[in-house]
Specification:
Layout lengths: L22 H6 L6 E3 L2 E3 L5 E4 L2 H4 L8 H13 L11 H11 L8 E5 L2 H18 L7 E5 L8 H6 L3 H5 L8 E4 L5 H4 L15 H9 L4 E6 L15 H12 L2 E5 L13 H5 L5 E4 L11 E5 L1 H10 L17 H16 L2 H17 L7 E7 L2 E6 L8 H12 L2 E2 L1 E3 L2 E4 L7 H17 L2
Parallel strand pairs: 3-13, 5-6, 5-7, 7-8, 8-9
Antiparallel strand pairs: 1-2, 2-3, 4-10, 9-10, 11-12, 12-15, 14-15
The chain binds pyridoxal-5'-phosphate (PLP).
The site of pyridoxal-5'-phosphate has 14 residues, from helix 5.
Length: about 450
Amino acid sequence: MKLENPHTGALTLEHFWMPYTANRQFKQAPRLLARAKDMHYYTPDGREVLDGTAGLWCVNAGHCREPIVAAIQKQAATMDFAPTFQMGHPLVFEAATAVAHVTPDGMDRIFFTNSGSECADTAMKIALAYHRARGEASRRIIIGRERGYHGSNFGGTSAGGIPGNRKSFPGVVSIVDHLRSTHDWARNAYSKGMPKHGVEFAEELERIVGLHDASNVAAVIIEPVAGSTGVLIPPQGYLDRIREICTKHGILLIFDEVITGFGRLGYPFAADFFGVRPDILCMAKAINNASVPMGAVAVDNGIHDAIVDAAPEGAIEFMHGYTYSGHPLAAAAVVATQKLYREEHLFQRAALLSPYFEEAVHSLRGTRHVIDIRNLEMIAGIELEPRPGAPGSRAYETFVKCFEWGVLIRITGDIIALSPPLIIEKPHIDRIVETIRDALKTVD
Ligand SMILES: Cc1ncc(COP(=O)(O)O)c(C=O)c1O
């Protein structure tokens, strides 16, 4: 298969300003994907690439699955778009019901967005609206965490804790503070599952709340497992303690489950895996197998009711939304995807496969450059020792080498993050791990 520009015959790369990409470097040696099916991508010249990252933590059911494709095609031909501002269409209600079916009990009010970034901002606005509706409008501070990622919009950038992302946009929303990251390499290196050490990091929330006073704090937003900054798994007991402190002070707990949602940890959500219920839960990506942009925020029914009931009858209760909130194509894909997850028991499949995945990934211990390996269910992080003066370059070269050898991995800094589709088979796991092992042998 040849990729061509229909007008000039040659593919022009300069017009697309690529997101989170070293544009100049990429355009000198582009890596292109043209087609995908199940566990594989295919390059324009037909080379097969095994997907070790479910695209970007999102294609949990594998690529181009027939029922999802068919649902989108049918919907595109039936009704391309319908507004959801003061209007509705049956599928969007059906999609919300399908999502509510898997969210934690009592969290079945669903607000649709188009991305994880929009979910973070939506969730924070819901938290502010809730406190205001209850006469506590002073609660405006949002507490995030260092090395947290909540997307790229202004709210998520501010609450997020990635220095590189924040550097160019300091103080975009000034009312944030941050917990420290739970990552403790010295004590927890090579942990399998939840690390033993670090529950005490949760106590820092008491300090931060004390500093600002609880009457000014609206919400804590954290990823149950931080993915984008390199697979940081919460220490045992940490999330329970964060929950306790939030409850004690009337602070809402927002879980950003954009990568942990829909089976990645063997359950619908990390909230289920950890047994910790947030007040607001953000999801996107795998909600419809990433086939059409879509995100959703699940809200505790009581929080929803407090906001809605505080508004006069006939008034719009929550002044927020997107033209494409509940887009018909995305909604059709949600319904089909959720059905597929159920029928194929994909979440349970993830749980069953995860011990094999864990052993395979930890077999890389002792391989050149590897300084830590950590994993939880179907997520793994392999940390490399950075090159002096050139952080990230070693992982980047490993990533390029793996791609050349037919395996797609994800890197963040010097950490390799693996999150394969949940339809993965054991030989695929072996191939991913062996390719990384071989690549590390060739990279200086
Ligand atoms: C935890 C988390 N939140 C938010 C986002 C942003 O999602 P999106 O890129 O769909 O805006 C991501 C993306 O990886 C994420 O991992």
